[in-house]
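Show me any protein, keeping tokens residue-aligned.
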Amino acid sequence: MNVRYFDEFKWAEDNGGTAWNFRDASGEDAAEVVLCDPDSKMWRFLINVPPRYCFNGSPPAGLVHNAAAAKKVCELILSYTILTR
């Protein structure tokens, strides 16, 4: 397994602010945050981790009320799984 460092990744805005991807310089995405329901302002996050960190074959995912919270949850999960600070 390659050691990946947290500072190699940055949040990149897509679709005019309705989607964010946590990607490195080569374009590999470690996580994505997408606006699911504009009326209730629910944001879905999905984290791309190896199968050993998945639960019942599903990667970590969830819904939160704002993009900033979703990004922080993604960063926290990534820092405890596949990224080194």
Q: What stands out?
A: The chain has one helix and seven strands. Residues 19 and 34 are 4 Å apart (CA to CA). The two ends are 16 Å apart (CA to CA). The beta strands are 4-5, 10-14, 19-23, 29-37, 42-47, 61-64, 83-84.
